[in-house]
Design brief:
single chain, alpha/beta, Rossmann fold, Rna Polymerase Sigma Factor, Chain: A, 2 domains, eight-stranded mixed β-sheet, 11 helices
Amino acid sequence: MGQKGSLGIVETEYVSISPPGGFLLECGRKLETVTIAYEAYGKLNRERTNAILIVHALSGDANAAGFHRGARKPGWWDGMIGPGKGFDTDKYFVISSNILGGCKGTTGPSSINPATGKPYGLSFPLVSVHDMVNCQKLLVDHLGIEKLLSVSGGSMGGMQVLSWLTRHPDRVRSVIPISTAIRHSPQQIAFNEVGRQAIMADMNWESGDYYDGPPPDRGLSVARMVGHITYMSDASMRDKFGRQRKDCADPFKFDPDFEVEGYLHYHGENFVKRFDANSYLFITKAMDNFDAAEGGSLHELLKGSDAKVLVIAFKSDWLYPAYQTKEIVRACKLAGIEATYCEIDSTYGHDAFLLEIEEETHLVTHFLKKVYNGYEVMSEYAV
């Protein structure tokens, strides 16, 4: 107990849920059944009071920690989840699920439409961040958990955290939104639109009906390249690449001569191997449409909540600048919610929420300890 270590080999689990009357979406359509891919680490205590939900960003999945058999890399937030880590699996039961509209096991546009026997493609209904959270609520209910100790995530994950706080305040004891916003700024919407247009301009996109042929890899790769530029900072790019040229550089050809160009090409080409282009379209649109304040004042929506809030931002994050996270804290204070704001001095840009593990671990560990001890009854684990 207390030693920081890996969770070792983990496996993704799947559950299909058919709510009475179907799963109603904000767009007015419904899905009769939703399949949810999830992973769970640690053990649920007898009182079921130690459960924490981890929600992922745009390109994430259910594998937040540990290794899948045969994989060379661990889950996307492995540094934060495990024995003795920030989300300590010796103490907490940690759940991570793939979002609705995704392509890593949860129902999305690449799933088979039972009405046609073919992938949904663009016939998949437009989903919202609130729909994603309602889907997670189905999973939490399925696991028999009445109230989550905490919900945490960065970027689009932070939007889901805010949705839990506003839509289901009675189901969370605390929340930890990281590097996120109440709503997207015009600049954030613009970057997402460039990515969507890159995909839809690909000759293989076929209006989203490409599953029987070659996928729109070039468009999706360009979308990912644009995204990666926004995830880093000027300082991190300068420190990592400078103006260093590749050994095979030829200034008289339009090949990637600089190391930063090679980096973008590498990540773009690898992304298309694991992600669906239509999911990229649906998810980014859900992000752009999200408004935690629902057109009004966030602090009015938050009034009456007794959840504790830890908000984390990073100084060099220009995709989700600190002023946006401060707006969340301001709304919490006006609503009378106990909120703590921490701005970490990092040069990593938006990627910092995945990289500044030591600082985040320190903040999260102490925050969760305070929340957990407020109502911990027994330390025995349920069987």
